[in-house]
Amino acid sequence: MTGRKIAAVGCMVAGVAVALGAFAAHGLKAQLTPYELSIVEKGVQYQFWHALALIGLGLWQDVAPKRSLVVASCFIGVGILCFSCSLYGLALTDWRWLWPITPLGGTSFLIGWGIAAWSLWRKA
Questions:
Q1: SS3 of the chain
Q2: Domain total in the chain
Q3: Could you list the residue ranges that cross the membrane (predicted)?
């Protein structure tokens, strides 16, 4: 995957985060408890920040192509899906089986950040 595609995916994921945040704040506020709303907000925050990470990794990949940057991007993408999407599901449904998926997403984030740091460290 090229750096531009990674950055483009990051832009789309950021846009979805903005839309979900607005929908939660305006469309779901009356339907969700304050606790459920805070879960959605946490998912949106992590999705947005990691979308920015994808944009940065994609731009970095374009300047200094490395397979490890693509791998880091994949782990961060999986983290967004597992962490943020499981939080959305937990807040909006009674699917309690999603709880174990959330920490898998957090672990995927950590692995992605670790690979990105290792890639930068090796470059220095």
A1: CCHHHHHHHHHHHHHHHHHHHHHHHHCCCCCCCHHHHHHHHHHHHHHHHHHHHHHHHHHHHHHCCCHHHHHHHHHHHHHHHHHHHHHHHHHHCCCHHHCCHHHHHHHHHHHHHHHHHHHHHHHC
A2: 1
A3: 46-63, 70-91, 97-121
